[in-house]
Amino acid sequence: MKNVLVTGGAGFIGSNFIRFLLSHESGVRVINLDVLTYAGSLLNLEDLPDPERHIFIKGDICDSDLVNSLFQKYQIETVVHFAAESHVDRSILGPGQFIQTNIIGTFTLLEAARQAWITDKLTPLENCRFHHVSTDEVFGSLGQNDPPFNENTPYSPRSPYSASKASSDHLVRAYHHTYGLPVSITNCTNNYGPFQFPEKLIPLMIINAVAGKPLPVYGDGMQVRDWLYVDDHCEAIYLVLKNGQPGETYPVGGDNQPPNIEIIRTICEVLDELLPQSPHVPHSSLVKYVQDRPGHDRRYAMDISKIRSTLGWSPRKNLKSGLMETVSWYLQNQDWINAINQRGDYKNWMQDNYAERGQKK
Ligand code: NAD
Ligand code: TYD
Predict the structure, then answer these.
(1) pTM attached to this predicted model
(2) Measured in angstroms, how far is the CA atom of residue 118 from the centroid of ligand 2?
(3) Ligand 2 neighbourhood includes 190 CB (under 6 angstroms)
(4) Based on the structure, what is the number of domains in the chain?
(5) What is the position in ligand 2's atom list of the atom closest to the CA of 297?
(6) Per the count of CB atoms within 10 A, which of 68, 124, 170, 271 is most buried?
(7) Are 11 and 95 within one domain?
(8) Same domain, 61 and 151
(9) Residues known to be catalytic
(10) 9 and 38 assigned to the same domain
């Protein structure tokens, strides 16, 4: 790996991945293409190791002229594609941008890679890799006793977000089978950790609890997600880039499946421990059951045998210590939180998503 195009590198997982890559791969140069939507911020990239090996380009993955020019100018031989609209609730209220970014954006990148690597032969194809970062949500929803998803599970996406990610996965595979583009895909479960935008469950609960605001639990709170600490996801992607086979798909997950309400109660306990003087102790008194998400997937779980046996990866961090570190990070980064809290678009989102939900019980 020499010249790596990371898309969406100012977002949650992308910024953590760049930090991981720069500290693990001394000869690498990262070209970070990010349009800086509400979810992306240069504040996420302030503490990079070796920042001179990171080049930030503000731009859209749907802009084919720009993307083509980056392949030429920087002799890109590796793409790690994170850029996406990533929040299910936003996809329910406004699906259009998900179709544009997640499907058209991925198509634009694939076309640029095909042009540079196969048509123009700018770099030897055996050195190239297009890695697509995807989600377990493409597989749909599990019943209580169903076995976990694996790499052979048929796709059955049920939200505009997961349908758009499923489409992008299909395009990536099609470019491998049709044009011989060297691709790989990881389908990962829910991530958590530093720099996650506080629209997702874990950072939202931390920030609301610290501020003494209600903790909105959708439906009965018994939906199940499989949680993975973000650094573990970064390591899995890194190993797939180094040793994974072109054309292969690797499920990634945390082997960790508590119901939402249990996660929320654990966060509250951690906060009670770290902030014993807070007037909001016990923080669990802030829990408020609200109207459910439409089409809410009940359960996700991932069988990670393939990446465990072929690449020797397994999650390093257990959920309790990962949550402790994550809560501590948010407590120590109040400036980062304030920068988001002050933004009108964040206040509008909280209003749009939560005002109508009311109280369930
Ligand atoms: P995020 O929403 O935090 O960040 C997305 C980034 O992409 C932002 O920096 C944003 O500015 C950028 N972006 C959006 N549209 C763009 C465009 N048109 N051009 C260039 N940049 C654009 O997302 P995340 O949580 O870091 O997720 C990253 C990837 O990982 C996504 O593809 C997501 O589907 C996948 N994924 C996420 C999770 C999770 O739990 N967060 C789990 C599995 C897979
Ligand atoms: P989220 O973090 O949005 O991830 P995803 O929907 O991609 O799994 O949500 C995780 C779980 O938490 C999901 O079951 C929905 C639930 N949830 C709430 O109960 N309340 C909330 O305010 C949010 C944002 C999510």
Answers:
(1) 0.98
(2) 41
(3) yes
(4) 2
(5) 14
(6) 271
(7) yes
(8) yes
(9) 136-137, 161
(10) yes
CATH code of the domain in which 155 resides: 3.40.50.720
Q: Which two tokens stand for residue 270?
A: 């951690």
277 lies in some domain? yes
Q: What tokens were used for 141? A: 């929803």
| Residue 29: HSE in the Cβ half-sphere, 13 Å Cα cutoff | 11
Do 156 and 7 lie in one domain? The reply is yes
Ligand 2 pocket member 260 (CB < 6 A): yes
Q: Is 8 in the pocket of ligand 1 (CB under 6 A)?
A: yes
For residues 157 and 279, membership in a common domain is answered with no
- Looking at beta carbons, which pairs linking 147-155 to residues 24 or more positions away fall under 8 Å? 147/303, 148/226, 148/253, 148/301, 148/302, 148/303, 149/187, 149/251, 149/300, 149/301, 149/302, 149/303, 150/251, 150/302, 150/303, 150/305, 150/306, 151/187, 151/249, 151/250, 151/251, 151/306
Query: Is the CB of residue 218 below 6 angstroms from any atom belonging to ligand 2?
Result: yes
- Backbone dihedral region of 188: left (phi > 0), alpha (psi from -120 to 50 degrees) or beta? beta
Full residue range of the structural domain in which residue 140 is found: 3-189+229-252
145 and 290 belong to one structural domain:
no
Q: pLDDT tens string for the chain (361 positions)?
A: 999 999 999 999 999 999 999 999 999 999 999 999 999 999 999 999 999 999 999 999 999 999 999 999 999 999 999 999 999 999 999 999 999 999 999 999 999 999 999 999 999 999 999 999 999 999 999 999 999 999 999 999 999 999 999 999 999 999 999 999 999 999 999 999 999 999 999 999 999 999 999 999 999 999 999 999 999 999 999 999 999 999 999 999 998 889 999 999 999 999 999 999 999 999 999 999 999 999 999 999 999 999 999 999 999 999 999 999 999 999 999 999 999 999 999 999 999 999 988 766 4
Q: Could you tell me the distance, in angstroms and rounded to a whole number, from the CA of residue 190 to the centre of ligand 2?
A: 10
194 within ligand 2 shell (Cβ under 6 A): no
Same-domain status, 217 and 177: no
